[in-house]
Specification:
By secondary structure, this protein is α/β, with parallel strands linked by helices. It is about 25% helix and about 25% strand. It has one domain (about 5-235): P-loop containing nucleotide triphosphate hydrolases (Rossmann fold), CATH 3.40.50.300. It binds adenosine-5'-diphosphate (ADP) and magnesium ion (MG). Adenosine-5'-diphosphate binds near residues 29 and 32.
């Protein structure tokens, strides 16, 4: 089985070496928990370390803000876009009622079929092996029934997993209550993996941690892993060895 390494410090060894190539993992967490940074890091590492071009579909953050967010960690998205190794699909400007000059964008209204075809076009153009959708919760507003959301997300996920494309994908989902796994409460059933990022208050300060709830065909960690966002992005704390020396 081929694994797509996230390259995120400390994570791959918790999930059997990386995400299964061509699978879809759902990354869920409340606002500010680090989801967008995680997604950027997964794509940036894929391109620069593992030679896997990527596509970032942004539904809430406009592309220039995304480039700026990545820039603070030294990840220059612009260069990768110029080299045709990265495509950002702007599905945020239109929603915000703003014009866009992006090469890949949803311009006239929001439509799932158009989004799917724009994704297909971008994936083909750069021969993408990785994709991030940030965030699928933003798709939910259009649909009243959770089952409709599920069907649409399922269609996109199936397209990406298809043998012809085989794109390893991260679907980001924003949750409101820390205890629900995803906003629509359905997305996690269609993903091959589920990772949550959390912020919790401990003794008057916020702490970050990551949990792996599901990772098909993988014996994965079931522990709570604290992490920090440092100069080079997300870093998961390595546990101190509790083994005692044999005498
Ligand atoms: N350069 C940085 N160094 C450390 N932490 C940062 C930096 N930039 C952002 N953060 C932290 O990351 C959070 C935003 O992360 P983000 O991935 O955008 O969250 P989400 O997408 O889950 O809403 C900020 O609220 C801040 O706590
Ligand atoms: Mg975000």
């Amino acid at each position: 089985m081929i694994r797509a390494k996230t390259g995120i410090s400390g994570l791959d060894e918790l999930i059997g070496g990386g995400m299964i190539e061509g699978s879809t993992v759902l990354l869920s967490g409340q606002s500010g928990s680090g989801k967008t940074i995680f997604g950027l890091q997964f794509l940036y590492n894929g391109i620069t370390k593992y030679n896997e071009p990527g596509v970032f579909v942004t539904l809430e953050t406009r592309p220039n803000e995304l480039r700026a967010e990545a820039g603070q960690f030294g990840w220059d998205l612009h260069i990768l876009e110029e080299k045709n190794e990265l495509v950002i699909i702007d599905a945020a400007s239109n929603k915000a009622g703003q014009p866009t000059s992006e090469r890949y964008a949803l311009r006239r209204g929001f439509d799932m079929t158009m989004l799917a075809s724009e994704i297909y076009r971008a994936v083909e153009e750069v021969k993408a092996k990785r994709l991030v959708i940030d965030c699928i919760s933003a798709l939910g507003i259009k649909f009243s029934e959770p089952s409709e959301v599920r069907n649409e997300i399922f269609r996109i996920s199936a397209m990406l997993r298809d043998e012809r494309l085989k794109v390893t994908s991260l679907f980001i989902s924003e949750i409101i209550e820390p205890n629900s796994l995803s906003r629509a409460g359905v997305e996690q059933f269609i993903a091959q993996g589920l990772i949550t990022l959390r912020l919790s208050e401990v003794n008057g300060a916020l702490e970050r941690d990551l949990l792996i709830w599901k990772m098909k065909q993988t014996p994965h960690s079931l522990k709570k892993h604290s992490f920090k966002i440092g100069k080079s992005g997300i870093e998961i704390a390595t546990r101190k060895s509790t083994k005692t020396k044999k005498s």
